[in-house]
Design brief:
Distance between the termini: 18 Å
Structural class: alpha/beta
Largest sheet: 7 strands, mixed
Order of helices and strands: HEHHEHEHEEHEEHEHHHEEHEEEH
Strand order of the largest sheet: 2-8-7-6-5-3-4
Keywords: Cobalamin biosynthesis, Lyase, Pyridoxal phosphate
Strand content: 15-25%
Protein name: threonine-phosphate decarboxylase
Number of domains: 2
Pfam families: Aminotran_1_2 (PF00155)
Shape: globular
GO molecular function: threonine-phosphate decarboxylase activity
CATH architecture of the largest domain: 3-Layer(aba) Sandwich
Function: Decarboxylates L-threonine-O-3-phosphate to yield (R)-1-amino-2-propanol O-2-phosphate, the precursor for the linkage between the nucleotide loop and the corrin ring in cobalamin.
Number of helices: 12
Radius of gyration: 21 Å
Length: 351
């Protein structure tokens, strides 16, 4: 243990749970190399194909974009007539979409990805964070659901979400679904339910394909919203390099199928490991597992001091989220750290 324990009360405006460089700086005496379990990103990324010189040397043309969008529609199970827009990272769409609408009441199913509430508040909307679908107000024009939810992996019956979308449409509202973690199990996706009026669905390319640094996402939904978003983005919002890589990855059916199977297996292995150490499992997706523990801040710090970075949530004390280790060495290192934590906890109990 470090000679002097640091305070884990972090400045929310400065702290982002997935910022490995922050951890490396704050825990500078930790033994490296760092094992980053803080993100819900596939640790076995899609292999970068050879990139044409043209992708680097000139602006992307309409043909490249249309090829990528067609591949994305097929991968996500959207109809040919569905409206789709590519964005340079889903985060940007989360920030832009609230500014496309007049100020209204927005209900957000929480706890979830905090940037949704922050973005709608910054755009001047009245935001309510609710804990279940039954709490949705009749005054709410927009409802935000992350599905599967981040950080707990919670999902809902598709029929309930479809009914909610229809109810909101009847009062000129909109259901917005963030499906950043749905690509490992498309059975929970509502892309096939998209109509002229909704829902609006956000997709992240980087998580499933393990290429978050490419900064690419997609929005599918009502034509007016998609057109407004595309106009707000302006031309060449997505790079030609991103388009070329994504078009190949989205069409690689063999890699996609094998990766879905391997991620599901790894997620089950992670849940089993955490249960063996007595953790209270809140939920999981195929890319992460979330636990609740009274001493979450202490465990977070214990792991960081050993160069293992998981995801904590300053606004949700007690929650820790673990991404998937990659190599067998990573699994063994993580297991050894949990063994050390358990022994230390047992020693304290016996004192």
């Amino acid at each position: 243990m470090a000679a002097q324990r640091r305070s884990t009360t972090y400045n929310r405006s400065l702290f982002h749970g997935g910022d490995l460089q922050w951890a490396q700086s704050y825990f500078s005496q930790a033994k490296g190399p760092w094992l980053d379990l803080s993100t819900g990103i596939n640790p076995r990324a899609y292999p970068i194909p050879a990139i044409s010189p043209e992708a680097w040397q000139r602006l992307p043309g309409g043909g490249e974009e249309q090829s990528m969008l067609a591949a994305a529609k097929k991968f996500y199970g959207a109809s040919r007539s569905a409206k789709i827009c590519a964005v340079p990272g889903t985060q940007l769409s989360i920030q832009m979409i609230p500014r496309l609408y007049a100020r209204s009441q927005v209900d957000i199913l929480s706890p979830t990805y905090a940037e949704h509430a922050a973005s709608w508040k910054q755009a001047g909307h009245q935001v309510r964070e609710i804990s279940c679908l039954k709490e949705i107000s009749e005054k709410a024009r927009f409802v935000i659901v992350v599905h599967p939810n981040n950080p707990d992996g919670k999902t809902f019956e598709k029929s309930k979400l479809v009914a909610l979308s229809n109810r909101l449409r009847s009062r000129n509202g909109q259901l917005i679904i963030d499906e950043a973690f749905a690509d490992t199990n498309q059975d929970c996706s509502l892309v096939s339910e998209i109509s002229q009026d909704g829902p609006l669905i956000l997709k992240s390319f980087g998580k499933f394909f393990g290429l978050a640094g490419l900064r690419l996402g997609f929005c599918l939904g009502p034509a007016t919203t998609i057109d407004d978003l595309r106009q707000s983005l302006g031309p060449w919002a997505v790079s030609g390099v991103a388009m070329e890589i994504a078009t190949k990855a989205l069409q690689d059916d063999i890699w996609i199928s094998q990766t879905r199977r391997s991620l599901n297996t790894a997620s089950e292995q992670l849940e089993t490991l955490l249960r063996e150490f007595g953790f209270n499992i809140i939920g999981r997706s195929s890319l992460f597992c979330c636990v609740q523990i009274d001493s979450s801040d202490k465990l977070f710090e214990y792991l960081c001091e050993r160069g293992i970075y998981c995801r904590m949530f300053p606004e949700r004390p007690g929650f820790l989220r673990f991404g998937l280790p990659n190599t067998e060495e990573d699994w063994q290192r993580f297991t050894a750290a949990l063994c050390g934590w358990q022994k230390m906890a047992q020693t304290h109990l016996s004192d």
